[in-house]
Description:
Blueprint: E1 2-4, E2 10-13, E3 19-22, E4 32-35, H1 38-46, E5 56-59, H2 60-69, H3 76-90, E6 96-99, E7 112-118, E8 136-142, E9 145-151, H4 162-165, H5 167-175, E10 179-188, E11 198-206, H6 207-210, H7 237-250, E12 256-263, H8 272-280, E13 285-287, H9 291-299, E14 303-313, H10 328-355
Parallel strand pairs: 6-9, 6-10, 10-14, 11-12, 12-13
Antiparallel strand pairs: 1-2, 2-3, 4-5, 7-8, 8-9, 10-13, 11-14
Helix pairs in contact: 3-5, 7-10
The structure holds 1-O-phosphono-alpha-D-ribofuranose and hypoxanthine.
Amino acid sequence: xxxxxxxxxxxxxxxxxxxxxxxxxxxxxxxxxxxxxxxxxxxxxxxxxxxxxxxxxxxxxxxxxxxxxxxxxxxxxxxxxxxxxxxxxxxxxxxxxxxxxxxxxxxxxxxxxxxxxxxxxxxxxxxxxxxxxxxxxxxxxxxxxxxxxxxxxxxxxxxxxxxxxxxxxxxxxxxxxxxxxxxxxxxxxxxxxxxxxxxxxxxxxxxxxxxxxxxxxxxxxxxxxxxxxxxxxxxxxxxxxxxxxxxxxxxxxxxxxxxxxxxxxxxxxxxxxxxxxxxxxxxxxxxxxxxxxxxxxxxxxxxxxxxxxxxxxxxxxxxxxxxxxxxxxxxxxxxxxxxxxxxxxxxxxxxxxxxxx
Length: 357
Ligand SMILES: O=P(O)(O)O[C@H]1O[C@H](CO)[C@@H](O)[C@H]1O
Ligand code: HPA
């Protein structure tokens, strides 16, 4: 069980109910060391329950991730505590939540009067373990709206259950957020898509859901939403239309599409057979995120706008070309190149939301 103490430090209690303090001061150098005895190191730094024994090579961040991963799912009260911590700590009540995709962290850099929270300092928050996901929550002003942006999201393949991956969406809700802007880097399956294009999501195929996995699995807390939420109108049409109009104004309409995204578990990129199958199912772009965040947002009745930056073209035919192999360096490089256009799209859309409210 976890909570946080009055200093905002993470406090864990072990099976015997003994409280342990953790000052969240794990170094950020990502240095790997042979933690031949996890317990010994953790006892030394964090005074944690000595029953856990893991022999492994892990960085300090990964050790913390492992600990957070093994915690219980998040009850309403814990999410409320996290939200209170952010609202009090920033003295702001955000209306729009933004999740920055791989390499798209600069979406948060355009926020003004920003109050930045490192994930590891937020009580009960998971940590980012993926390159291109800085692990910071930024609260501030953007185009006249108070926004909160996650520079770094949580993925299933990092080892977090889906409910934990999308838990920050519920934090957003309890902070007062009405709109979720979810962004991602994705592979283009639709042959008409080019690298650098932006696909506005108007639907998704939930492959993890097909396999029996959902962020809403387990007891339903009606304070968030209903047991059986409908998803047919998940992606807000008005926002899609506004974004298309903005695309025209920016002169990028030829590089903008409206399409269907699918999330696979990763961390492997897809095989040719899988990509062929996805295409036959009507999928236009594929990634390893976003869908569970959208489900969680719709469950608690947030308006959703989401887009994919096409960072690579997915091959759907067999060939020997090395170019056909997706890689994360390429994903981040393309995202970096296109971050200006993505930032502008987000900023202009927020301006319009503000103007019409
Ligand atoms: O969806 P985001 O977080 O943008 O990241 C995408 O990029 C990574 C693969 O390169 C995967 O994590 C995939 O989901
Ligand atoms: O081709 C891809 N597949 C899955 N996830 C991705 N994220 C960026 N590109 C891809």
